[in-house]
Amino acid sequence: MKRPKSPDPLESSPPPRSQEGHEEEEDEEEERKLASVHRAKRERRQGSSSATMCQVCNIQLNSSAQAQIHYRGKTHQRRLRRLAKAVTTGRDAPIY
């Protein structure tokens, strides 16, 4: 049974660099790529149109599914009752 030829360590090493300016170009290219990635993340965070704000509880909900769950929850329902009670009694804001 034949064994596969083991890789020669010299063959797998990268070729020597002959130009010093080439390294600077690679660094600049990497910086540009990183800047575009960070910009894309920042735009995603700021441009998330699916985020909803619950004005009663003063919290941000990231999706419509999360908003539905929150609106059905005990805490939101309790705060709604307190707010409705405060409005009917003539108070401006509920006391917590």
UniProtKB/TrEMBL annotation:
Disordered: annotated span: 1-52
Membrane-spanning segments: none
Name of the protein in its database record: U1-type domain-containing protein
Coiled coil region boundaries: none
The species this protein was found in: Pagothenia borchgrevinki (Bald rockcod)
Residue ranges annotated for the U1-type domain, each copy included: 49-83
InterPro entries named among the record's database cross-references: Matrin/U1-like-C_Znf_C2H2, ZMAT3, Znf_C2H2_sf, Znf_C2H2_type
Bias kind Basic residues: ranges: 35-44
One of the Pfam families matching this protein, by short name: zf-met
